Amino acid sequence: MRILFLGPASSWHVTRWALRFREMGHEVTLASMHRVPGEVADIAVPLVPDPTDGATSPGTLLAAALAARRLVRQLRPDVCLAYYMTSYGLVAALSGVRPYVGAAAGGDVLVDPFDPLPRRIVNRAVLALSLGRCAGMLCWAPHVADRLADLGMPRERILVRPRGVDLEEFAWRPPVPDPSRPLRIFSIRLFKPLYRVETLAEALVQLGRRGIPFEARIAGWGPERGRIEAIVREGGVADRVEFPGKIPPSEVPAAMGWADVYVSTSSTDGASAALFEALAVGLFPVVSDIPANRAFLEEGRTGLFFPVGDAARLADHLAALAVDRGRIVRGVEAARDLVREKLDYDRNLARIAAFLEETARRG
């Protein structure tokens, strides 16, 4: 197929998708309002002058739509794929390209609860336009498909398939149930209000007060890092908590391989790539009780849940795992079938490519 891929080239997930489609034999053009990294320079086209990594303005979106319209006339693609519906989905809708398939990240269609009301109203209007001209939708989890159906997308045009994990890159390793060393805890989420990382910091302080041996690495970046570091410092556990910052994608498997437990405190998700990567590597997840996590984990067997923002319950779970390391081993073993059957990146991408071909044939 000749695929026009509208998406943020600065995102590792997008560039990997584009390159894999090309490896599968498709002719791919990646058009982006965001910075284009070197690894996709030969297939990428900037939609605006001087693209950055930041948020897009209304003027940028309009300029990108006009550039995409010219690109569509030039390339005459068999199908267009647009990733993130309130930005690139809008660009696709305004460009006039047909047919186009949207890909929902999650927050774009779930409507971020931390957004002010005016922004949510604008987002819903944009979604109405983007979805109204969309021939099909990709999403990563059933609760996102439910939301798309509520917004008017016919169920038969929705493919629910997570992107998955490169199972060679994120290679499984047997967990080491060694109660003689501290429990190792790992998290990798943005330091923004949506992700509630302060909940983990507060839970670690509680572990310290209970005398539970642990070591933690809280990776990520964002405006709330200083506040989260202060919680750890003032709680007296700074000597047991590291903040490695932004970890390059190529180093994430090794960073995860250090740990026993993966923690996510997010208040909402579409489907978390970090959770899938942690499962693939062999970490036991302790995560917030939200639909995105319930869609893939079985409580008490392949993961543990705590209410969003409940640091005490999170601390209880971590303390129990510190005592019973065998539970980690059993949980990781139980999750292996899920990883192989639902989270294999190559298998899932092949199904997504087939969905694009089906949509292209329908026109």
Question: Which short descriptors sum up this protein?
Answer:
single chain, 13 strands, alpha/beta, 2 domains, 363 residues, 15 helices, 7-stranded parallel sheet, 6-stranded parallel sheet, globular, Rossmann fold
Whole-number total of structural domains:
2
Strand content: 15-25%
User: Which consecutive residue ranges, at least 5 long each, have pLDDT under 50?
Assistant: none
Based on DSSP secondary structure assignment, what is the total number of beta strands?
Answer: 13
Structure, explained:
- The chain has 363 residues and is α/β, with parallel strands linked by helices.
- It folds into two domains: 2-164 and 345-362, Rossmann fold (3-Layer(aba) Sandwich), CATH 3.40.50; 183-342, 3-Layer(aba) Sandwich (Rossmann fold), CATH 3.40.50.
- The chain has 15 helices and 13 strands.
- The protein has helices spanning 12-23, 58-75, 88-95, 107-110, 117-132, 142-150, 198-210, 225-234, 252-257, 273-281, 291-294, 311-323, 325-334, 336-342, 345-362, and strands at 2-6, 27-32, 44-46, 79-83, 100-103, 136-139, 158-160, 183-188, 214-219, 241-245, 261-264, 284-288, 304-306.
- It has a seven-stranded parallel beta sheet with strand order 3-2-1-4-5-6-7, sandwiched between helices.
- Helix 7 packs parallel to helix 8.
- The longest helix is centred in the N-terminal third of the chain and has 18 residues, at 58-75.
- The chain is globular and about 65 Å long.
- The chain starts with a strand and ends with a helix.
- The relative contact order is 0.12.
- The mean pLDDT is 94.
